[in-house]
Amino acid sequence: MPGLARKVVICAAVDGLILQPLASKKDQRSSPLVKLKYGDASISSVSRDSAPDILKSTNSSFEAFGIVGLVTVFSYSYLISITRRQQVAQIRGQPIYVVTEVALTPCSSREDASDAVAKTAIAMSTRAAGHLSSDESSSEDESDAPAGPEVADEVADEVADDGVDHDGEAEWSTAATPNTTARSSIAEDVISRRGSYGRFAQRWFSRSGWAQDQKRSMGLSPEQTEHAVIDSGAAAGAGKGQVKSVPRTFPLPSNVAENEAAIGLLPKLLRTTQIFFGSSRTFYFSYDYDITRSAANPKVPAASLVPLYNHVDPMYFWNRNTIQPFIDAGVDSLALPLMQGFVGQRSFTVDSNPPQTDDGAPKGSVELSDFGSNKSDSTPASPRPEKASPDTRPSEKKFDITIISRRSTKRAGLRYLRRGIDEAGNVANSVESEQILSPSDAMSDPTAKIYSFVQIRGSFPLFFTQSPYSLKPAPVMQHSPDSNFAALKKHFDGLRKRYGSLQIVNLVEKHGVEAPIGRRYEETVQRLNEQAGSEAEKVAYEWFDFHAVCRGMKFENVSFLLQILGSKLDSLGSTVEVDGVVTAKQSGVLRTNCMDCLDRTNVCQSSFAKHMLDLQLRAEGFDMAAQADQENAWFNTLWADNGDAISKQYASTGAMKGDYTRTRKRNYRGALTDAGLSLTRLFNGMFNDFFLQTTIDFLLGNVTSLVFEEFEANMMTKDPAVSMLKMREQAIELCQKRVIADEAEEFIGGWTLLTPQVPDTIRAASFEEAVLLLTDVALYLCRFDWNLDKVSSFERVDLAHVQKIKFGTYITSTISPAQVDEMRNVGLVIEYKPGSTDITRVNTRSMSTTVSGKTAQSRGGGADEVAVAAAAAEAETKSGPSAAPTGIAGFLTRRPQAPPPRKIALKALYSQTSVADPTARVGSPGEHDGGGAIARLTEIQEVVVIAAELERLAIRNQPRLAGKKQDEVGLIEKGDIISLADAKRNTGLLEQLGHSIKKMVWA
């Protein structure tokens, strides 16, 4: 495949930001250049001769190890480049790196770009001068390494003397002896680091909090954002640079004042992006090796000639959206794919004929490699030459064990904000973990076998949610059983196509709050198996109550699960590769889940992996049960690090039960640590995750810049994978079937609109989304339970009773810019005089209903009685209340003879949403875009269409208006429902204060 640039020189020229990709020092002068123009994200290629002399100045340019891509909010573009990295593994002779720092360079003006580039260059050169080792420039491979040790800006303030950094992850020393044991404590996440990995919890424990960020320049590298300017004179005298505080404000371009909400949140977005891609230390890459594909899932051979970005698995290509401008420009050498997850490697030695007596150092212990851990901030070194040990036994052999965990970009996000499944069958926290066993000399031995074993984890393939405001919230099931079954079937069909046979391992409780979703899962899988065409298509299901079996901290009882699934594991086997050719392939996969697919899942997956490792080594002639070292600390630590990494990416803290994974022992200290981790997860779920989830969706391209406008309004994030357009269409269809009892009524149309939760009001503290149905004789306002896909209640109004229809500005809140836009906040009010044919029906078979102002409990069942109630209403109209059949669930009222007029207030939904939908745009009715999709109506257009249809049909149903011209009838009135001025006057201090507090907390 075409090579990727090992380095990229970045500088600011007069007419754009220039990038020079460097494959190596040899072709440095001949590499083409790429230019980003100021003011937008356009990219063009330029010749090397046109590059300015600024490339030669270390203060005006800097070298990056790759390009993450461009982040663009309206006309503001920022280049994301990798300024620091660390080698964490070597697979098939190719190095694997983790990103440890990125720099964001503004591309909107030369002044901003030059300033950012210069400051980044100064910081990098200062760090290199202070920490560059004497042998770093000895080879081309080493010259690619970042200059000197580092400490992640937001994750670790300093590295402790004991070799453990402050996010609780081990730092391996290059001088470690073979018997050195890694020290790592999950408790540091809570006690020392406050669980701040990848989140912002530490801000809340600091004195200044988020005020620090307001003093930083968000377009620079972390060094500049920490206001660091090194006094070189003082450094020469004292040996250390003196740091001077230089507070700065974020240099927003002044060319256009676009969306106020998005621009207001831009500094926070850029800082979050910087932490997400850099300081979180969760993104991995290789210049020559595809880390996104397991040995059992290789790309077709023809793909060897295509660029790496075209070779990787799209499911694990995390910067596809941000790097797309470079792909479109044809700059393949800069399109560096990143994968989020974990990569770790350890070396160990085993003996095919271990001594039966203690004759020295124990065999089978770990030998720490230079890149055995991805937690150290030290500069990666080249692999050490093999040194023959004086007591090396001929029967010994050295192996490398590597874990690669790949987080899916589908339904990606954070705990509680991304749960369950989506309509396409993608589940939250979907992770593929591959364990690779290879001889350390595999590259020099073409007959060496490389073993690969793959497991997966993922959330329940069901629709459900959980509240973030509880330590152990009960799962709330969503949607109908048929909808859940359809999504689950898509999920398992996709897994079967990718992996082969499937074995489910469900670890949730069989009693308590987790039991209902576990039973629903079991029932849905049984339904799937009943419809399977053959035994091979059935999904094996094992429900192992981890907490019950391991009660009393007896986690060793996981061995019972291994006994149950041992034969299944043996039958699945491993993928075996010899000299690049797959000679055996794993026939299936274990899909493990607990509630979050973190803690219990990692304990069990490590046990499965150890079982398979023993089988693989036995096939190589080594019996692990006979080794002198039975601790296997190298294996346990590697899997514990893997569990911590996945947990931190999903739940903000290290994995619980990590002490058992590391030591195979459990005590009260581990239980106390887990309690602290639970509190930290609760804190992050309540406060820190909302904006980060918004940022993740934006960087993945799931949403547009409008998401920040939506976030500004309610400080919450929506799930872009949920197709609200499809859900609304289904709700309209369901309401039509349920509430229109008279088949003689002609259905005209249906819409989803906002309406006050309190009927017969215009102003309300809260609004809900309801369905409006229109027939030739009546209108129906249906209040819908969107979680259960049921009609909660409906109100029927005879069109003959409609007296006035008013449409215009409808401002319901003034706390965000989007909510005060008079062109987008519009609605209509339908005023009618109630009659005997106008009814209100409440479905008492919903989960809960309000009947005459009181709450009635659910009685179970469906919503089919809505149509029955409509028939009862017709009977009562004809024969009086006594004619209504008894025993009908619901509430039916006969209107008084001279009731006061009533109102139905409806507000249009925003036609433009943040969900990235290239087939839909705002335009005139019936207008088509280039792709043939019909454009959506604007808010005012939709309101006018509904009002016109209502007036036309109301006139037809009122004999007193027959024969009159439409302009003489005057049912439609144009005017403000709630004007902006009125809304501002009625916005209370409490509402403003509440939003200000929410904004302070979440934004």
Draw up the topology in text:
Layout: E1 7-12, E2 17-22, E3 33-36, E4 43-46, E5 61-64, E6 67-73, E7 76-91, E8 94-106, H1 110-131, H2 140-143, H3 187-191, H4 201-205, H5 222-225, H6 232-238, H7 260-264, H8 266-279, E9 283-285, H9 308-311, H10 320-328, E10 339-351, E11 366-367, E12 396-407, E13 431-439, E14 449-457, E15 464-465, E16 476-477, H11 481-499, E17 501-506, H12 515-530, E18 540-543, H13 546-549, H14 558-572, E19 575-578, E20 581-584, E21 588-593, H15 599-619, H16 633-651, H17 658-663, H18 668-699, H19 706-714, H20 724-739, E22 747-756, E23 767-775, E24 778-785, E25 790-798, E26 802-809, E27 826-832, E28 839-842, E29 848-851, E30 854-857, H21 865-879, E31 902-907, H22 939-956, H23 966-969, E32 972-974, H24 980-986, H25 989-1002
Parallel strand pairs: 14-21, 17-18, 17-21, 26-32
Antiparallel strand pairs: 1-2, 1-5, 2-3, 3-4, 6-7, 7-8, 8-9, 9-10, 10-11, 10-12, 12-13, 13-14, 14-19, 15-16, 19-20, 22-23, 23-24, 24-25, 25-28, 26-27, 27-31, 29-30
Features:
single chain; 1003 residues; 14-stranded mixed β-sheet; five-stranded antiparallel β-sheet; globular
Tally of separate helices: 25
Note the main sheet. 14 strands, mixed
Give the overall form.
Answer: globular
- The chain-level structural class is alpha+beta
Uncertain residue ranges: 25-30, 132-258, 359-370, 372-390, 847-893, 918-934
What helical percentage do the residues reach? 25-40%
Strand content: 15-25%
Distance between the termini: 43 Å
Q: How large is the radius of gyration?
A: 32 Å
- By DSSP, the count of extended strands is 32
How confident overall, as mean pLDDT? 74
Pfam families: hSac2, Syja_N
Region (Disordered): 128-153, 164-183, 347-402, 876-899
Organism: Cercophora scortea
InterPro entries: hSac2, Inositol_phosphatase, SAC_dom
